[in-house]
Amino acid sequence: MLRQITGTVAARIVITVMGLLVAVIAGHRLGTVGLGAIGLITLGITLIRLGTDLLGGGGLVYLVPRVPLGRLLPPCYLGALVAAALGYGIVRLFHLVPEGYAPHVALLAFLQGLNAVHLNVLVGQQRIHANNVVGMAQAMVLVAVFAWLTGLPGADAHAFISASYAAVACALVLGLLAMRRHAPVLADGPSKVLMLLAGQGGYVQAANGMQLMNYRLAYWLIERFRDTASLGIYTVANQLAEGSWLVPKSLALVLYSRVSNSRSADGQRLLVLACLKLSMACALAVIAVLLLLPSCFFQWAFGPEVVGITPLIASLAPGILGMAASQVFSHYFSGTARNVHNVVGSGLGLAITVVAGLLLIPAYGLQGAAITATLAYCANALYQVVAFMRITGSSFREMWPNAADGNRLRELLIPRRTGGQRQ
Known about the structure:
This protein has 423 residues and is mostly helical. The chain has two domains: 1-191, no CATH class; 226-415, no CATH class. It has helices spanning 2-29, 31-52, 58-63, 69-93, 102-124, 128-150, 158-178, 193-225, 228-242, 246-260, 265-292, 295-302, 309-335, 340-392, 404-413, and strands at residues 417-418, 421-422. It has a two-stranded antiparallel sheet. A hairpin with a 2-residue loop joins strand 1 and strand 2 (421-422). It is globular, with a radius of gyration of 21 Å. The N and C termini lie close together (10 Å).
């Protein structure tokens, strides 16, 4: 398990660095307007992906060992196609992406949806290393092609579109080659595959959809009330701040696996508390480093037009720490079949994002957007803390670090041997 964890963390580090390199290249060669356009394009793809992943998400992972791929893949592919077509109409009707980009956004969402199906199949086949390799290859191809295209005369945000096509094409080829399409079925699966895929995916995607709006609704509000250049600056600050979630997300994924397979409610509670403290500590360390960096560093890294990053990160910091805690609580609720708390928390955060965003962004610009995000993230996390305490009987005092946390984390990452075998 430790090898899978370290491999996954390493892969996420590579993918995160590649994402920052895209921002660095865009900031220097396309300016803040290009950064803002790429932010809107990426957001449009992510929005449509909520639909394309409806059938190809968590339900698919569960069914891979139980149902032949010949029955699983066709409905997932068809669902991604239908969702992409509907998404195209939505982003074009509401002008959610820059003019002329809607067809590319929809097609890329469809292709990335197909790739997500293959990656989830790999997870279902317990081929985590292959999953990580495909993800890293996609990120590296994106950066390489984008760097080449933006070096040509007259480059604009279309360079990001072309690079995205190249990256997802590479990932699709690698994913298809990596899948074991004739893997043995280990158990009899249910006959109503489509209903189970939709049922499992629908509940999760509802929470994911609200959380996406919680994360990114400010992007559209900034573009609406300010301009695309301002959005470019905010996307850089937001991407840097969210980099502090790398360890919390990786740790929470491991926690989810352990909680799902644990029958001890107290054991689950103690593991959650230990992971919570480590996640908060890691996120705090990253935020502290970002705040200590001089403003000239961000201009050197992302281009001379990228100014005012440090104050934005400072305003985002409390909310980023809140969401680092939320990563842990969300996976606990998922692992104990209490997803309703994730839905309620995301819904509460979204409501605050809408109200505060409409009030603060027109009045205070990017600082208003950062404050809005912090209010929404903290409200989500606070609700989850209260829900966790009510369910488990935990107290605030137990959420402070203590000597026993180290032992619990070692048990999580390196399970004890029993009879010469790891549990």
